[in-house]
Write a structure and sequence with these properties.
Blueprint: E1 7-12, H1 16-27, E2 32-38, H2 41-51, E3 55-58, H3 67-77, E4 82-87, H4 92-100, E5 105-108, H5 113-124, H6 132-140, H7 151-161, H8 166-173, H9 177-191, H10 196-206
Helix pairs in contact: 7-9, 7-10, 8-9
Length: 216
């Protein structure tokens, strides 16, 4: 009986202790393999290009190229690679930035180590992983006007209104299908609509001239 290939992982963090701790933790798992580690953005991009991992575990606070910049580069150059952001920062802005940057998940260094392993496993399967605290913040947060979609959500609504599927939107924006679904769920809650048709109708009415249709 053949076993599935292990999840191939690259770890990126500028702290040696974190890298070694993560490597030891992950290599104890029979279904995971650490291909390489990186301490900065340039090293990370080089390793990913050469080794083609399934998952990158990425710290947000790397210098001189920050984690969010790395995330942008990974989404542009290696859209098939899934990215789990692992950070000590649990503020809502970091979580939202990671999500909108196309991260497949967000995990906290303050959580139990096995939770990080579980998050890597979930991300590798295409699931969107965010702590419950992040979900609560994301659903509650977008100031200044709670009922208004964010810029990224409006971008997705524009593509929905053009008739694109979630998969097509994900490909266009270089994010995962699950990221698109997550944004649409937020949009439905904010707008009080039930489906993509109603959401698209709302979007079309917001465009300049949209309200004038059928008017005198």
């Amino acid at each position: 009986m053949t076993h599935p290939a292990p999840v191939r992982i690259v770890l990126a963090d500028d702290h040696e202790l974190v890298l070694e701790g993560l490597r030891s933790l992950i290599e104890a798992e029979p279904d995971m393999e650490v291909l390489a580690t990186a301490k900065d953005g340039a090293q990370l991009m080089d390793v990913v290009a050469r080794r083609r991992p399934d998952v990158v575990v990425l710290d947000l606070e790397m210098g001189p190229v920050g984690g969010l910049q790395c995330l942008d580069m990974l989404r542009a150059d290696h859209p098939a690679v899934r990215v789990l952001v692992l950070t000590a920062y649990s503020d809502g802005e970091s979580m939202r930035a990671a999500l909108e940057g196309g991260a497949s998940g967000f995990a906290l260094k303050t959580e139990p180590p096995q939770q990080t392993v579980a998050s890597i496993r979930q991300v590798s399967r295409g699931q969107l992983v965010f702590p419950m605290a992040a979900r609560r913040w994301l659903l509650r947060a977008p100031a200044p006007e709670p009922s208004q979609p964010t810029d990224r959500e409006m971008e997705i609504l524009a593509l929905v209104s053009e008739g694109l599927t979630n998969a097509q939107i994900a490909q266009r924006l270089r994010v995962s299908d699950n990221t698109v679904k997550f944004h649409l769920q937020n949009v439905y809650l904010k707008l009080g609509v039930r489906n993509r048709t109603e959401a698209a109708t709302w979007y079309l009415r917001q465009r300049p001239g949209g309200r004038r249709r059928g008017g005198g």
